[in-house]
Write a structure and sequence with these properties.
The structure holds two protein chains of two kinds. Chain A is 74% helix and 1% strand. Chain A contains 19 helices and two strands. Chain B is mainly α. Chain B is built from five helices and no strands. The chains are: A mainly alpha, B mainly alpha.
Chain lengths: 498, 163
């Protein structure tokens, strides 16, 4: 049977009432977990895993897929409304989503985010369905050397994001790299900067860092101007449909395709993840745009880029998971657990032995993305009501949720305590007018960069040998080119000013 | 005003010192027996880049100080008292969460934090009642949601509900 016929019959079986109901519930639970800062998609999948024990393999897998998709896309809601990314994947959504909400365009921002999340997911699922085995071969070409190249490339994006004030942006990022290096070093496990504190051995938790930089710092920043903002409310413009016209939609198509490709591509590579893909797509969209200065001030293109990319990462991440049995991140690792529980072993044999289950998963992915679109669309009006809650009540509630979420990740009180440290970093950055984005990006990529560099050196003996690998060369030299170009642009702009 | 004028200077001096400290501290790490790039490589690189960039920024900001600074109309003065109160409250919260328990510490923290953030006009008796209701309802919703919905046990501390 061809892929299309398989997919067709799988779609029919996925749309049985029982499986549909389970998927609706799964998507809804995923959205709740995704939208609450501190609760992540992987936690949602971990929680649902035992519930799927008693189901048939295909029903169980459909439910897990539903939770995963809901969880990744739910992050955009809090990113836009609260300026706090619900998951690490939606960090870049805050850059333009929140300014849009401040201008009264919350409904439009949510509408765009939801539609392009949906399209991004479907795009990657189509690629997954038809090219999964071929693309998995590509993923195998990626050794730590290539991964180091990508991480290095992503880091140079900091330079572009910080353009206009590059030195300060880079300094802001370097501190993030430092925090990423706290704890046991990769490979040899040397304790670094732990000062005898055993809690620090595992390093700082990603979720705690995000919560601190976004949620805690936000409370402190808001506290500065509370009296002055009395009576100021955020307007909420009413919109029809999803809040954008057909012309606008057509305008976003090139941006969407590019971002979805970036997202799927990053997704295929194990261990890089949605936060990087969203950020890369955002920066690429900014650079390709005719009006780069609008980015960060509430430009719809920014939301389109990030949301298409981070949702496209899902389909990408499923490729190595299904074809090779390699999980790329926390969520897919949980999914792999789900496979094992149901007696399926992910890997090349899965396609031969359990083709029905594989195509069932593909079909479930597509249907779940549609369900996500429908559920979130019906809830937009409810979501935006959050903006009507006075800030002095809303922010403390969010902080409590964040603290609990940080605790729940590892059941470690230290993770809760470290949010205050990062809150302070965020607030001091605000006082000194340093950008926090480079800090977050560098923190997320820092340990990946070091691990891959050192692993690469271990297997290839010297850094020079890296250059024998063409994929690495492309990423490395493009990154160097971008860096040089940004520095030249910066110096010229500085001369013009003087 | 102080921060606006000397912000860059403070930033550069801080990063300069921090970068140098990083380089020196990284020298105490043992060499790796397996890989030529040891655990000290990243911190040293970070420190080096930091120190160089900070030095450039330092020179720039000293040059900028010599020029007469343009004085902008001041916005409303930041209320640092509120900021410090919020910081102290949240610090107390995260450190009391474990020993005192989620329910009691959250009940106290939420009310205090909302009160601190609320502008003076929003601190009437009616507002205080709203704060208290929001506080109690939210705390228990979160507690029950995590305990029974997500099966995550929050720190119990000195007082706990066993249902």
């Amino acid at each position: 049977m061809g892929a299309l016929a398989q997919l067709g019959s799988a779609l029919l079986s996925v749309c049985q009432p029982q499986s549909l109901l389970l998927m609706v519930a799964g998507v809804a639970i995923g959205i709740v977990f995704g939208s609450i800062p501190g609760l992540s998609a992987s936690m949602a999948v971990a929680l649902m895993l035992p519930i799927t024990f008693t189901m048939t393999p295909s029903l169980g897998m459909n439910t897990l897929v539903a939770v995963y998709i809901g969880g990744i896309s739910g992050g955009l809601i809090s990113a836009i409304l609260l300026n706090m990314p619900g998951t690490a994947s939606s960090i870049a959504t805050t850059f333009d989503g929140h300014p849009m909400a401040q201008k009264g365009e919350a409904m439009k921002a949510l509408g765009l985010g939801i539609v392009f999340s949906f399209l991004g997911s479907e795009f990657s699922f189509l690629i997954l369905t038809f090219f999964a085995p071929k693309l998995a071969d590509v993923a195998l070409q990626f050794t730590p050397v290539e991964n180091f190249g990508i991480c290095f490339f992503a880091l140079t994006m900091v330079a572009i994001l910080a353009s206009g004030n590059m030195i300060r942006g880079l300094l802001a990022g370097l501190l993030g790299l430092f925090f990423a290096s706290v704890g046991m070093s990769p490979i040899d496990g040397t304790a670094r900067f732990t000062f005898g504190n055993s809690n620090l051995l595992a390093g700082f938790n990603q979720i705690s860092t995000l919560i601190g930089i976004f949620a805690v710092a936000d409370i402190l920043k808001t506290a500065e101007h509370m009296s002055a903002n009395v009576g100021k409310t955020i307007p909420i413009n009413k919109v029809k449909g999803f809040g954008f016209s057909v012309q606008e939609f057509i305008h976003h198509i090139p941006n969407f395709l590019r971002s979805a490709l970036i997202g799927t591509g990053i997704g295929i590579l194990p261990g890089i993840g949605g936060s990087t893909s969203g950020m890369l797509a955002y920066v690429t969209a900014k650079n390709m745009s005719k009006y780069p200065d609008e980015f960060g001030k509430g430009c719809p293109d920014g939301i389109v880029a990030t949301e298409s990319a981070n949702n496209a990462t899902i389909g990408g991440a499923m490729i190595p998971l299904l074809v090779l049995g390699i999980p790329g991140d926390g969520v897919t690792a949980m999914m792999l657990g789900g496979f094992l529980i149901h007696g399926l072993s992910a890997g090349p044999l899965l396609f031969i032995k359990n083709a029905d289950v594989v195509y069932g998963i593909f079909a479930a992915c597509m249907v779940c993305a549609l369900l996500m679109l429908i559920i979130e669309w019906y809830c937009i009006k409810g979501f935006v009501q959050v903006l009507r809650v006075p800030k002095h009540i809303l922010l403390p509630l969010v902080l409590v949720l964040c603290a609990v979420g940080a605790y729940a990740t590892n059941n470690r009180i230290f993770d809760v305590q470290s949010i205050i440290l990062f809150g302070l970093v965020g607030y001091i950055y605000h006082l000194l007018k340093l950008p926090t984005t480079p800090f977050v990006l560098c923190f997320l990529i820092g340990s990946l960069l070091e691990t891959n560099l050192r692993r690469g050196i271990m297997s290839y003996k010297s850094f020079g040998a890296f250059f024998a690998r063409p994929i690495f060369d492309v990423f490395f030299f493009v990154a160097i080119g971008v860096l040089v170009y940004s520095v030249i642009k910066e110096v010229r702009a500085g001369k013009k000013k003087a | 005003m102080f921060l606006r004028k000397y912000g860059d200077l403070i930033t550069s001096v801080f990063f300069l010192i921090f970068g140098i400290w990083l380089i020196l501290y990284a020298r105490t790490f043992p060499e790796s027996a397996i890989v030529s790039i040891g655990p000290d490589f990243m911190p040293t690189t970070i420190g080096l880049l930091m120190a160089v960039l900070a030095a450039i920024l330092l020179v720039q900001s000293i040059m900028a100080l010599k020029k007469p600074a343009e004085i902008k109309a001041d916005e409303d003065a930041p209320e640092y008292k509120r900021v410090i109160e919020s910081l102290v409250l949240s610090l107390a919260y995260v450190f009391l969460l474990q020993p005192v328990g989620f329910i009691i510490s959250t009940l106290v923290y939420l009310f205090a934090q909302i009160f601190v953030l609320a502008p003076e006009v929003n601190r009437t008796k009616k507002d205080l009642i709203i704060f208290a209701v929001v506080d109690v309802v939210f705390t228990f919703i979160v507690f029950f949601l995590f305990r029974y919905g997500f099966k995550i046990v929050l720190p119990a501390g000195i007082f706990t509900i066993n249902l």
